[in-house]
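Here's what a typical entry looks like (Thioredoxin domain-containing protein):
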Amino acid sequence: MRLLLLLFALTYFAYAQTRRRDNPLAKGFPTEIDWVDWSRAIRVAKSRNKPVFFLIHKSWCGACKNLKKEFETDPETPELIELSKKFVMVNVEDDDEPSEKEYRPDGAYIPRIIFLDTNGKHLQTNNAKLFRNHKFFYPLIPQIIDGMKRALDEFETVVGES
């Protein structure tokens, strides 16, 4: 029985690693998410009338590595993946991070998740309630889900007003 479990675990791990490599835009995050290249994000957001989920991270960053582990292990990740269908999902890593100050509104810490409208402007949604000095830091899946839900509510209000 142990051998069978070990074989299953190794097969699953190999499959997961292969799936990760199959989607270069995932950069270590779930490949079940429809990741979009940053250069196309605003155009896609406008055409789909969806807000942008913009994740900025670095390959060498400990907190970023922990966030990737959260995505792999948190039981709420499937809910996040389902919610991701209501966003244009973008993640940039290392040198792909845009240099404009608007994408580091309260500092260049990482990881940061910023929610944008279809024009690339910041939605007000942030995580300041938990991290006053790092408003766009979401280290746990439940916090990200909460932020996504609030961003959707805000986006629908903004779209409804225009």
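The first strand starts at residue 52 and ends at 57.

More examples are in the samples folder.
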